[in-house]
Amino acid sequence: MKLKFGIKASINDTRKSFEESFAAGDFYNRQTQDAGHLEKILGFVKISERMKILDLGTGSGYLSFPIAKKNPGCEVIGLDIVDAALEANRARADAEGIKNLSFVSYDGIDFPFEEGSFDLVVTRYALHHFPDIEHSIGEVSRVLKNKGLLFISDPCPNECDTNRFVDDYMRLKKDGHIRFYTKGEWTDICSRHGLFITDSFDSTIRFPKKKDTAYGYEEVLKKHDKAVIAGYDLAETDTELYITERVNNILFEKK
Predict the structure, then answer these.
(1) Is residue 18 classed as helix, strand or coil in its secondary structure?
(2) Which CA distances in Å does 32 have to 27, 95, 249?
(3) Nearest-angstrom CA–CA distance, 37 and 80
(4) What global pTM score does this model have?
(5) Of 6, 63, 147, 186, which residue is least crowded by CB atoms under 10 Å?
């Protein structure tokens, strides 16, 4: 019961934080948008006619909108916990006349879809917020068809960061950050649910954080090795902090 309560509390923290982030859209967009990375993803994930595609943790629809526009013969569904963002996405899809794109809200735990519903699940910069990653990847596997594909794009720790400075740093903002996973950890987690790597590429993100949300920043710096911190190219301005994070971009197949 305590574990379930903790999961729900974490999901509520994430929902609240992202409601605030979406309301202040310019900064949220600057945190997450990268046109070059988006184009690489769209070229990397091979989509064929009449696929049914789930964008998990869709947020502002950063993946789902271009996928739907580029593939009008496919059905694309964005899934998220932040109702305000989904409403904005629906209004945008209507305004742009995108008929093959819809958005669904859920509780952050169980996916509201039947077994074997999708050919492809994509997710970008979302899974580090999921408090029960084993259950969520199990849900991905459940809703994928046999030989269906999962594409994960999510930051990862530097190899030397064994004490996880980057996770302590990301948790300074109370937005439900749980953990960044290494490629090896993703391999292990996904393989337990019948999902196996077929391809991958690496990228980076220069991530800004507002200082007024970084409670306990000085204590985190004191806790971790300076050489490890330097590996993230930490920089400060009067109002913001910046680090560079490596990103895993991994394609899995359900077998």
Answers:
(1) helix
(2) 9, 24, 15
(3) 21
(4) 0.94
(5) 147
